[in-house]
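Q: Convert this sequence to structure tokens.
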Amino acid sequence: MHFAYPPRKSSNPPPFRPRTSALPTIRSRRLKTIVLAGLAFVTLLWLFQTGRRNRHAPPAYHKPSGNPPVVIVTVFNEGKYGKGYLDTVKENRLKYAEKHGISPSPPPNSGYGTFFVKSSDYDLRGAPTSWASLPAVRHAMTKFPDASYIWYLDQNAFIMNPLLKIEEHVMKPSRLEELMIKDHPVVPPDSIIKTFSHLKGHDVDFVLTQDKDGLSSSSFVVKNGEWAKFFIETWFDPIYRSYNFQKAEQHALEHIVQWHPTILAKLALVPQRILNSYSKEKGGQEYKEGDLAVRLYACGEAGEDTCETESQRFAQWKAAFQNS
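A:
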């Protein structure tokens, strides 16, 4: 039994029939209108959200203008030292700042600034008073937002050479290139973490020295800016204060530097006598005439008047300032 073959398909299909209704056109127009309205709504919503974000966005980072170029920060422990001694320390800072007064060359500046506070001004939550140096430095950054550099100098130290400027003697990039101690253990003598060997002077934001025991936080310079704020706030973090390090903020700094390469990448060690000579060779490099500053090593450990007595050995700073 055979079935009929299906009809053959024509290779010449009939032409399209003319549209008999306007309904498809109306539908396509409506669809196009809906799509365009949706795109317009999404665009307006995006513009609105962008505007809100811009209104609430943080302001651009402030770039210090360099006026003043340097602010010297010292924290006083009035309960430990006599008023006469602390007044002499304050006079030393003020005289040094005076020597670097208004510059006639452009851009003009108002000279070095000074920032004196008491350790009791800050709530340290039971931590040793030496920790007060950190909120004091952060406070100075807020009070002097246009300062280029903040120099923290301990109350047991005296500036000896009024002719040396921080921005030239220490922080100038070409000068740092000469001074930086590279590929050197952060904590002597054999720390496996070492200062970066490829660091350039213009990358440095934090300068300090070492003594025979390790990093010395009694005299250091930070370049004012967002990184410095981050660094000081990290260093002052409550978790580090709660660790009860033997040497408080000094050992906390050694811990941070060894565990946080983002901080080590901005740190430069310089020879001790550049920024932080000691009054005795026992602790580190001993002061020589011409050095910028001298710290009275272990001052105060033998009694309240020890610092004032030892400071008499370096009273020549007054004559040096008068003759400069």
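The mean pLDDT is 87.
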